[in-house]
Fold these 4 entries.
Entry 1:
Amino acid sequence: MQSADVIIVGASLSAAAAAKRLVDAGLHTIILERQELPRHKICSGILSPRGHRFLLENFGPIPREALHDPTSCRGVSFHFPSRVSMSMDFFGGTTPHLHRRYSDHWAIKQSGAEVHDQTSFAGMEDTGRHVIVNARRRGEDVQYRARWVIGADGPSSLVVRSVYPDYAKQIPWFFVGQKFHDIIDCPLDEDYFHFWFHPGLGHYTWSHARDGKQIVGVGFKRGDNFDAKHRNVVKYLGDVHGVKLAEHSSHEGCAENFGPSLINRYVFGKGNVLITGQAAGFLNMIGEGMSCALHSGAISGEAVVEARLRNRPVQEMYRKMIASEVRRTTDQWNPLKIAFDRPHEADFPEALMKLSLRERGLVLRDMWRFVVLYKEFKWGRRIAAAAMHRLMTLGYPEKRWL
Ligand SMILES: Cc1cc2nc3c(=O)[nH]c(=O)nc-3n(C[C@H](O)[C@H](O)[C@H](O)COP(=O)(O)OP(=O)(O)OC[C@H]3O[C@@H](n4cnc5c(N)ncnc54)[C@H](O)[C@@H]3O)c2cc1C
């Protein structure tokens, strides 16, 4: 059995950030990753300015191989069924278009942690004094003993399942899939990430340029038909935007736990086990999850360092410290914050005000119709309750967290 102060499950950005804090504080940290590194990660790779700052401050300049082409993104373009479009630049200039295979591997290496790839977390037992982690490496069982475990294993987290076996049944699951097309003609500005607020296309519809191809992506409630949804979007892009694409050359998709950050239903773990990143439910508006993965990951690492220093239970530390990231993320979905503050990293109110009065009316109507698509999940009352709590107490209620 191998021993460490901390085992982190998953070698992604939240893991790199957590590991950086732990290694800097002198803790022996082992990261377990089920795939061989550098590993593929399905992602558009558009990092928000806050995420960009985090990478620069903690890991240094991003190497060229960790970027796709175009290497940067200016902002986001929203498109509406009424045929109004609006583009918003990110605050503070362009942001990097990360190639997740290499950016994540680079950040993990920069953290200085020991990495065991091709090693899949399978289960664990928290004895109170330490955690025994069971894993599989190339068909063999391996065991680790650690004082603390951090689950940074993404949306379909096995760490979450082993702490809360029923959790996966309590939340709605979405499927997001993207297909890569050769471009015949594409008038969509390649400097922007394009998103459609269109209930007829799906819950999440996007397109952007990457390495000479055009990505067309769709997100919808699990159970619908990917090919049919995607075909519908490609036809719409052709009819409405004049986009002409060749048949796709490859495709990919995965399950997403979209929802917990909207309704302040995060999962932070129990005893000596912390959950962070998207596994904990962090996801910003338009599915931007890298910046909150980095920040929540760093906080999970800091919580362990603090708990050790002060000889306090790690959950007590983590739940106090993570409240700031909960505010950052859940504010992005809070209607009061959207209306009266600037919770996002691009200026939606300014872009809206640039439109004519009639267009503004159409945009607000189309956005409302889009939101109605999510009615079946019954999030409205919980979002309103969380927004009121935020207004009265300056935070979100901790009792909603698992
Ligand atoms: C199609 C798509 C597009 C996206 N586009 C963007 C975007 O443009 N910008 C943005 O900011 N975010 C985007 N996101 C979201 C973003 O990718 C995630 O929010 C972010 O990667 C979460 O990081 P994480 O560290 O929490 O976990 P993840 O990146 O999900 O990584 C989890 C890691 O854990 C490993 N793992 C899983 N299970 C085990 C196990 N049992 N044992 C060992 N290892 C395990 C996985 O292999 C993986 O390496 C997108 C997501 C999707 C699906």
Entry 2:
Amino acid sequence: MKFKFFILGLLFWATCQLQAQDCSNFCVWPGDVNNNGIANHYDILPLGLAQGATGPFRSDENVDWSEKEAADWSDSFPVNGATYKHADSNGDGFVDEFDIFPIGDNFGEINDLYTGASEGNNIEGPDLTATLDMTTYTDGQTITVTISLGSEDNPVSGLTGLAFSLDIDTTYIQQVIEPITWNLGFIGPASTVMTFDKWEPGISDRIHFAFAKTDGSTIEGFGELLTVELIVIDDLSLRFAEPQDYQIQILDVLGIDMDETDLQITSRGDEATLLTTTSVKEINWNKEWIIAPNPVENILTISHPNEKLNHVEVVDFLGKVWYSEPYSSSDIPFGNIPPGMYVILIHTSNQIYSKTLFKRPF
Ligand SMILES: [Ca+2]
Ligand SMILES: [Ca+2]
């Protein structure tokens, strides 16, 4: 009799172990679409591929980060092998745009399946480029980063989704302006693409990005993906005596095609110099500089015989930027700027020059 209980007990224990093991393979963790043990931006890529799929709904439609029993779906991802039930993050039996939210809610959460391996493949191909809008910045200034994909000579082809991270170096950056502006002209229209970005201030130096086509179409050619605005720390000059090199990098890129095969993409970063306010030089009387007329009406002329001018900004005394463009012509349009006092900031590669002037009333 005792022996019989022992056998029954053993059977019960074995069944429990099996079930626990089963769950690690068959349970869904909301947001971990590729079932690799972490919810993050790479899960957007398979989520795009599975859009429109249907299957059994879960008995537990909560989306907190814990294992949820779920019946298998008939379709599975071609390379990863996980069934489409993992794409149904919210467990309602449909894979649609709402399944993106558990990825953001559970971002960075891990379970036992997680190995810590980087999910980017970083293989050479068309460029994914981050470009800064100026070569010099100073305390509290806005840095506009443009991220573009492909070029006329080396376009992308057959892309259905892309995930990557931007390292912004928070030693020098105090804020990321949100929401981030995606350019859906290139990867859209909006009804055919899901976009995702995540910045976790204080946790990481990286902003994570992903997008995926949701209509079975692919992205061809080249263009701008998005722009991000970063604010330089406003006590830069207090913390650093010397100009600082600032670098921005794109890391851990993964692009996939319709068959979930990795596409080749090469990431390219950019750099600038962060100047302390003591290196902003006010232009007083100087016969070489032409910054005229003052007061200005419709056109301000700016030139210097020897300096290479990179960028011109017109800022009011509240810090509002009215004009910010690369220097391409000596004529700066002032017609649309209201009357008042302005500071003109002229960026060269190792200096920012400033000049105060007045816009005449209409
Ligand atoms: Ca995952
Ligand atoms: Ca769903």
Entry 3:
Amino acid sequence: MAPVKVKKICCIGAGYVGGPTCAVIALKCPQIQVTIVDLNQARIDAWNSPDFDLPIYEPGLVDVVKASRGRNLFFSTDVDKAIQEAELIFVSVNTPTKKTGVGAGFGADLHYVESATRRIAAVAQNSKIVVEKSTVPCRTAESMRTILEANCKPGCRFDILSNPEFLAEGTAIQDLFSPDRVLIGSLQTQEGKDACGALASVYANWVPNGRILTVGLWSSELSKLAANAMLAQRISSINALSAICEATGANIDEVSHAVGYDSRVGSKFLRASVGFGGSCFQKDILNLVYLSESLHLPEVAAYWRQVVELNEYQKSRFSKTVVDTLFNTITGKHITVLGFAFKADTGDTRESPAISLIRDFLAERAYVTIYDPKVDAEQIWQDLAEANPNLPLELIKKQVTLAPSALEACKNKEAVVIATEWKEFKEIDWQVVYDNMTKPAFVFDGRLILDAEKLRKIGFRVKVIGRGSQ
Ligand SMILES: NC(=O)c1ccc[n+]([C@@H]2O[C@H](COP(=O)([O-])OP(=O)(O)OC[C@H]3O[C@@H](n4cnc5c(N)ncnc54)[C@H](O)[C@@H]3O)[C@@H](O)[C@H]2O)c1
């Protein structure tokens, strides 16, 4: 059988991954029709909004969608039609950590993947290549194959590929335009290799061949978990060292600079901070912990679990620094938190360290004012309500205020906490901030973005992660 020529692609899941990834495929492959589908009508309406008020913020995304939407890029809730028309289907649905049942708190909740797979089996009228784009535990492709084969119509065959996504939020478009690598896992049968070739030929429209890596299915699935675990492990390692720096008077920036100069280590991902967030790192490591335990590898599980525990420690250590520095009590004090997104250049708040910090400040009965340039109010209230299940939202709203700008947020406050590394926080007129704050005025830099010396000269008392007391 000749390898399939892909003319129509369907992507199930119009989220942070499915949306940008398939919008870029549409841009780079004008000969392919790409339809991104989702059950969430509001999300699809936002993707289709006439003024391009898209459901996610990502630099450069609007231009990509503007170039292709209505030409060869479509957003729809008609999942069945898109499945039926496509030769190749990306499954890009969410795989959050399970909240209840077996593996709760660790294992991935695969029910979205399973229901998308069952839908494909139920409505497909001819053979398809089904591509696992979601991050999943090892051997999920096998379960998908079993479901598809047990439920498909006669004459339909399904080839399953694993094609994990390595984009980082905040730089997603850049990452998709010029990926370090595209990884495709397939069965090592002739059919598996042909399916792999069909997907590789899509990426080959803009990705150099040397960057398209083809491996076995299970290696591909595990590589995604491994990549995220190793990236997060670097952050936890540098954060662990930041605690030593604070206790000894060493400077974490100098330490990471010196360590990163070693070409075997490299300089990226060695920035100390209040902790990592985002929808992936914690979830994927916990998934790896669960996998290791299921495979009776407790030492391996304990090793990876510590990466997450260190991250929790770093967040609570930072909250404690704020309380200790403000004369051991923040009850009734006014604290500004600058940044709510889990990192700069995204509106995504999943697992954002800001949420943990604010939860801790509320527990101490402080008043908190929040400013973030991209996160909307509704999202902030939803996240704070979830993080404080014992505090009714009306009470949260009595303790928390949302401000329209950074300057406004800092007026008449005792302390400012930098929780997200938005560029605009570096560019604030800190003299004006100081003039309008209650004295003594404190700044806590949880992202190492401010010039602490300059702030001290203005009159601030400054605490920076990874630097001892001055
Ligand atoms: N966000 C990231 O930076 C990132 C990076 C790499 C990989 N991933 C992985 O990609 C996957 C998707 O992540 P995301 O951030 O895009 O999630 P998301 O929650 O933003 O989007 C998932 C979308 O899938 C939709 N959906 C769920 N079940 C569906 C179904 N049966 N039919 C149609 N639509 C359905 C949901 O409505 C939602 O809009 C996850 O497995 C994640 O781990 C995420």
Entry 4:
Amino acid sequence: MIDTATVYRNEAMIGNSLKKIFEQNLVPGLTRQDIFITSKLAPKDQGYDACYKAVLESIKNLQVDYIDLYLIHWPGTARLKLPDPKNATNRMESWHALEELYHARKLRAIGVSNYTLPHLTQLVERPRRNHHSFDNNHAHDASSSDPSSSPGQTQTQSYPHGARTMAIPHVHQFEMHPRLFQRDLVDYCQAHRIQVQAYSSLGEGRLIVRSKLIGEKRASLDIMADLIQKYFSAPMQGIVEGADTTIKDEEDMGLDAFPVVAADEDPAEYAHKAARILLRWGLQHGAVVIPKSSQPARVRSNIDLFSFEIEPSDMSALDAYSIEGERTRYCWDSTEVC
Ligand SMILES: NC(=O)c1ccc[n+]([C@@H]2O[C@H](COP(=O)([O-])OP(=O)(O)OC[C@H]3O[C@@H](n4cnc5c(N)ncnc54)[C@H](OP(=O)(O)O)[C@@H]3O)[C@@H](O)[C@H]2O)c1
């Protein structure tokens, strides 16, 4: 799985790497269908025409025929003030461009990212002509060019390429971990069959360092050591071998001011196990998790999530870290975007 975005400025690099892998058969047997590529619309490209062009540019840069999932990265538009109502108009225009590219099979699934509940309800509950149903099964199956085959999406819009509306997004990608558990947003997505995709599940790495504070932000969860003891009593074998055991930016984060780990505790092993707990917590809430790591050993460990299950009481204890007013957001906050 590749999660990229126009603003990450690495689509062309990914495209070149994929081309090399396929042309030189560097991973024998690997085909395009084995790779799931997500990309995202930059805030500067909001609006129907700009979005349409941006998607085609992403497809060109990635050197593929289609993108598996394309998201509106952010509800706002670059250079507009946050309360400007044009933000709302622009993102709806972008959505219509995505719908059209979805029907044209250039995008296999479409969605949004960093939308708050009001942004999402505005999209999902917008008035639609000929709209009969909120059944997302219809929405997700609407790849046929015959409108009669998708009763939830029979409207034809007056957009240049004749886009038809689709009921609701396939995916919503937003920050989600025990210090930022937006239950209302998760519930709404699940009620409308929108797949939640959790990003920064590890708090950008900060939640898996055993420290109370990192800079101004609250980090480790004080029950984590107990959970690690309960679910991973045996030492992990092999998995950390070859990994760089340095936790990112420890000194930059001012961790020397805090007891990071007990003298007999291996910080790399603690981080691996804490990461697995946090990722499993996301999965048990029905989210898809997309942890990032530049280290193969960490990637392997982060995938190993199906050999244990967090008990309901421990799930509740983790959920309880997300108390209103005490939440910690490590990434963007779109609350003020109109
Ligand atoms: N839609 C959006 O606006 C948005 C925003 C943010 C992120 N995202 C997506 O979500 C992905 C993940 O989020 P994220 O990068 O913010 O944060 P994350 O996955 O919570 O944390 C990544 C950090 O944790 C470290 N790490 C990962 N596994 C580890 C392990 N087992 N042991 C020790 N350290 C570990 C990584 O370091 P190393 O790399 O050094 O291993 C990296 O510094 C991103 O790559 C991006 O694709 C989307």
